Amino acid sequence: MIDHNGEQAGVVSVQEGIRRAQDAGLDLVEVASQAAPPVCRIMDYSKYRYEKEKKHREAKKKQHIVHIKELKLKPNIEPHDYQVKLQALRRFLERGDKTKITVMFRGREKEHMDRGRLVLDKLMSDAADIGEVEEAPTPLFGRMIVMMFKPKMKK
What we know:
By secondary structure, the chain is α+β, with helices and mostly antiparallel strands. It has four helices and six strands, in the order H-E-E-H-E-H-E-H-E-E.
């Protein structure tokens, strides 16, 4: 048993431990049940739980959740529309979000997959300063080409 001052109290019976905890106005808490004999500690359990919850809240504040955003393009995209999509990609990457870029092909556009690949290559080169390719462009179901972008790590 460990007393409320953090000092070893030796091996004592459960009843003796409970009595000492009640005399100190605190709780007897089992901290290592797998040990032989089990280790108990005299402490204010509600204060311990409060401190633990407080640490958990602080850790939660500091974490950054990565979202996956998606941009959809066509192989024959107009220059202005391309710039709008590029600005959206930059905004997502600056915020720290991963971005899935999809080039969709409809009808006869499927015959010209190389145009979609050119759009993705141009996008990769235009956004190379702020992001990097996480997954290379891969064709899906013959109707789309999908690629993943992630923000560059800051040094």
